[in-house]
Amino acid sequence: MFLVLAEEPSSEKVCSYQDILDYLNLTTDNGAFKLTRPVLDHTHPTMVELDIILFAILAVIEKTQTFIPFIWATMMWNNERISWDPTQFCGITQIAVPRDMLWKPDLFFYEMIQKDDSPLNPYMQVSYDGMVTSEEDMKVVSTCQMDVHKFPFDTQRCNITIGSAVHCVTEIRLTPFSNSSRVTQFSREVMRTQGEWEFLQLSVTTTNFTFHGKYWEQLVYTFTMRRRPLLHVINFLLPILFFLSLDLASFFISDHRGEKLGFKVTVLLAISVLLLILNDILPSMSNETPLIATYCIVIFALMLLSLLETILVTYLMEKDKETLRDDCKDKQENGKVANCNSEEKRRTCCSCICKVSDGEKQHELLPVAEEVNNSIQSGEPHVLLLILEELKELQKALNLHLGCREEGGKSVQWAARINRAFFMFYITTVSLFVPLIFMEWM
Predict the structure, then answer these.
(1) pLDDT-based confidence at residue 333 (cuts at 50, 70, 90)
(2) Using CA atoms, how far apart are residues 173 and 218, in angstroms rounded to an integer?
(3) In the predicted structure, residue 188 carries a pLDDT above the cut 50
(4) Which one has a higher pLDDT value, 218 or 252?
(5) Cα angle: 255, vertex 260, 266; to 5 degrees
(6) Residue 47 main-chain phi, psi, to 5 deg
(7) 64-114: per-residue pLDDT in tens?
(8) Can you give the residue ranges of every domain in the chain?
(9) Are 46 and 104 in contact (CB under 8 A)?
């Protein structure tokens, strides 16, 4: 005989989330929870608390003035039709329900220009006291009024304005869950990537505006970020400065050759390529002229003036060279006969006064030497007169040669003055402009 003992019923109560849904009568077909604003009295505004944390700065496009952050948005509001006693349901304080089962605030981003294609969180958290929490990860493609005056040493401030589409202040009140210091701290802790930009601050403010006689409330989140300029300095600013130094050093190249002109043209073409790159970076419309545009235009203008000055100086020197060649040729032809006579007399004089060591030549010149000795002994100054006349002819030929060179120096004097004056102007302008533009940048 066997004795069967019955099991004692367990005193621990078993609960499920479905019990709470059945208690609340919360189903997908119940329109009382999702069709209208969840208040028992329509005069009570729904308090919506909003919190935004910045995860990443995906892109800041200056050309289209677009700001693309990746954010984590949290909304919390009270549903007055939902409440239960956790002690009656095994201590359950919150449940997760699908998003389409409950009413949600109609909040949107005013600056958003492209629909978010990020996957949405399919559930919302509902607490026993009726507090509903919705969390979403969003990629916001928004427009931003950028100030590129100090590009690439600029600091940008882009706003994301959040407000209700159809509910005014008497129906929905927006309040920030965290203040500016807390959202900035949280954003720095969870920041994943910043790319070219360095995140500085995230501030939140509340604004109101009137439209059709009603007051509307908005939350404005301002993202402050600073550009990291190292890439642009290395790839753009320094090469232009190097080309400017090369153009400055080209003043030491001789103007008599064509290498200087070709060198300046090459440097000017290199600057033109960099200006095309700048055109792709900067936006087409801006409130102020960017300093980098002023920097490039002034340097390009200096190099252009330097090229024109080189062309002018080269033209003057080539023209003077042709004139000098023709003048000297005429003078040399006019003095050809005198030079020939001087050459003949020079040979005679040298034959008279030079001592010949060779025996045969000394024998041939012996009558001439004896004649010179006899003339000197007889007191005749014939030899001295020959020497004096020869020196005069040599001085005349030397003056002719020096006259051509002196006339050539006078003809290129204007070219030398222009070159010297422009070099001083170039040095002064560069010495003043480059420090001033960098001081304005910083």
Answers:
(1) low
(2) 9
(3) yes
(4) 218
(5) 160
(6) -85, 115
(7) 889 999 999 999 999 999 999 999 999 999 999 999 899 999 999 999 988
(8) 17-228, 230-354+377-442
(9) no
* Residue 437, C-beta contacts closer than 8 angstroms, at least 6 positions apart: 291, 294, 295, 298
- 321: its two tokens: 């060279």
The rounded distance, in Å, linking the Cα atoms of 190 and 370 is 117
| Amino acid in position 376 | I
Exposure string for 293-316, b = 16+ CB within 10 A, e = fewer? bebbebbbebbeebbebbeebbeb
421, two tokens: 């004056």
3-state SS, residue 53? strand
Contacts 24+ apart (CB under 8 A), 290-298: 290/148, 290/149, 290/150, 290/151, 291/149, 291/150, 291/151, 291/437, 291/440, 291/441, 292/151, 292/152, 292/236, 292/237, 294/437, 295/237, 295/240, 295/437, 296/240, 296/271, 298/433, 298/437
The CA-CA-CA angle for residues 310, 314, 319, to 5°, reads: 155
- Residue 157 has a CB neighbour count (10 Å cut-off) of 16
Kindly report the number of other CB atoms within 10 A of residue 290's CB atom.
21
Using alpha carbons only, give the angle 431, 434, 440 rounded to the nearest 5 degrees.
Answer: 130
First to last CA, the chain: 101
- What would the pLDDT profile of 368-425 be if each residue is shown by its tens digit? 445 545 554 555 556 667 776 777 777 666 655 555 544 455 556 777 888 889 999 9
What was the pLDDT predicted at 30? 84
Q: What span, in angstroms and rounded, lies between the C-alpha atoms of 207 and 163?
A: 10
| Contact present, 81 and 70 (Cβ < 8 Å) | no
Question: CA quadruple 154, 197, 298, 280: dihedral positive or negative?
Answer: negative
Instruction: Pick the closest to residue 394 from 347, 352, 346 (CA basis).
Output: 346
Contact 247, 266 (CB under 8 A): no
Pick the CATH number of 17-228 from 3.10.129.10, 3.30.830.10, 2.70.170.10, 1.10.10.10: 2.70.170.10
d(CA 260, CA 95): 81
Closest CA to 418 of 429, 426, 408: 426
